[in-house]
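Office hours follow-up: a student asked to see two folded examples consecutively, so here they are.
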Amino acid sequence: MNSEIPVKRIKTSKIVYVLPTDTMMKVEEVFETVPIHHILVVENEKLRGVISKSDLLKVYKKAVNEGVFPDRSTILASDLMTKNPVTLDTEDTIGLAADIILANQIHSIPILNGDQLSGIITNHDILKYCFK
């Protein structure tokens, strides 16, 4: 495996996103209909955050512990998302992406081309590249 290849060669370019004002119900609908584990939160063509399936699990877990199920129509994507996620540039290397994923125990990194969202790279993309 050549870890010096730029991430633009293996990133997922089809960007699945929600708006910060979309509800938790909309986020759940996206996860149910698209086979992904991370949704980007975008506003005015700018990355605002990332929502993972784990983020939703935290809400469910809290609800179970407190015995009160939240109104999913009032919880917004901006409430669920990880704000200011780690990002990489399209020219950064696959090796750097792997190092960041491992060091931060995360599973995805949004990819930017300058300040424009270009895609996302996941640990699955890296594994696929390594063993393809």
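And the second, which I mentioned at the end of office hours:
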Amino acid sequence: MGTYAYCLLPNHFHFLIQVKDVEEYSPAGLSGKFRSLFANYAEKINKQEGRQGSLFQKNFKRRVVLADRYFTELVYYIHANPQKHGFCFDFKTYRYSSYLKILETAKTSLQKEYVLKWFGGNQEYLKCHNQYIPTEGWPDWILD
């Protein structure tokens, strides 16, 4: 699995990932893997906080990215999400997203080189994130 973008927020999160084997990660298989991740995460948080129950209100959602424009807008949307929801004034300063991590030279499992190449390099990546502002709300194909 490759991770292209992420954003962790206090009440939800977004990941843009690519699965390696479509058969292994069928909708049912992928949902099962995330269900296991969520259950393990909830168990750890509940133990740490001395609480019980679910941490998440909504069900896991996924979409297949087939269009180039969708990939580009999705990377931006994921990075801009903390600002959209009022968790920060400027998403470019938000610590818990991949926006700044993509620009860092430190080695991670994040597919930074791919994302930067997709946008046409560092300057174009920055330019896109600085200039793009949806004028009529977010496209209806974006999940929230």
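Two things to take away from it. Strands lie at 2-8, 13-18. The domain at 1-144 is CATH 3.30.70 (Alpha-Beta Plaits).
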